[in-house]
Recover the amino acids of this structure.
């Protein structure tokens, strides 16, 4: 294969590929339908011309038939009047009219056949055009559906499930870490020195209230001797427990002070 042939082939291949990319099937089908519809008036004009020729030939045949009848009558009248010269002239005209009538009749037959064929061709074209138009509309709908499916496929390709799953996993781990840190801070706050001191103070307040209640009952004579001994034991126990709580409180305060000194 020559160099020029190879260049031509490459050029045709590149041109064909470029046309395939820019060619829109929907637009091509719509233009094809328009072209087919634009040809209908031209076909109607052609059929009308054929039918007009047929009508003209039929009119000529009718006139020639009348002329033949008139010439025959004139010939007979001339013969009766013994005008052979006039009869001879009419006979010549009659022969020419008969030839024209025969030729016109043959042309009319061909014209009638042509008119029928033209009408049939026109009807077949219109029927085929309607069929092709319906098929083109179906193809256009299929093309639009294919375009939507392509767009959906491209969207699904860009939607990476793995990336979103890793994002959800990362956010879940971050939230879990925050929850764990919050729970640790809450637990640390519940076991801190301040909370212990608050518990001790609350318990000391309860003991003082109970002692005060017992004093009121004793002053009002509502407690007997046994109850008084029990109350004195309870007060002593309260005082002993109060001394123990005081020792615990002192140790906690000392520990807190040491922590503050170490931090400074």
């Amino acid at each position: 294969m020559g160099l020029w042939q190879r260049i031509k082939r490459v050029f045709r291949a590149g041109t064909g590929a470029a046309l395939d990319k820019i060619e829109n099937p929907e637009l091509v089908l719509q233009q094809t339908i328009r072209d087919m519809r634009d040809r209908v008036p031209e076909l109607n004009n052609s059929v009308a011309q054929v039918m007009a020729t047929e009508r003209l030939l039929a009119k000529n045949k009718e006139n020639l038939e009348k002329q033949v009848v008139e010439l025959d009558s004139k010939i007979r009248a001339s013969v009766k009047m013994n005008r052979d010269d006039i009869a001879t002239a009419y006979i010549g005209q009659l022969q020419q009219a008969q030839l024209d009538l025969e030729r016109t009749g043959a042309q009319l037959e061909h014209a009638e056949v042509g008119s029928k064929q033209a009408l049939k061709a026109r009807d077949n074209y219109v029927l085929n055009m309607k069929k092709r138009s319906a098929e083109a509309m179906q193809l256009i709908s299929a093309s639009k559906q294919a375009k939507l499916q392509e767009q959906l496929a491209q969207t699904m390709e860009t939607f990476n499930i793995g990336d979103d799953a890793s994002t959800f996993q990362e956010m879940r781990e971050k939230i879990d870490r925050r929850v764990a840190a919050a729970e640790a801070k809450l637990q640390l706050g519940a076991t801190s020195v301040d909370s212990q001191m608050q518990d001790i103070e609350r318990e000391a307040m309860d003991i003082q209230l109970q002692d005060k209640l017992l004093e009121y009952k004793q002053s009002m004579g509502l407690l007997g001797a046994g109850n008084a001994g029990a109350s004195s034991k309870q007060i002593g126990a309260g005082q002993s427990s109060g001394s123990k709580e005081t020792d615990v409180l002192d140790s906690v305060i000392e520990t807190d002070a040491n922590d503050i000194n170490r931090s400074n």
Observations:
- Helices lie at 3-22, 25-80, 84-158, 161-190, 193-219, 225-263.
- The chain has six helices and no strands.
- The chain has a mean pLDDT of 76.
- The chain has three domains: 9-159, 162-190, 192-263.
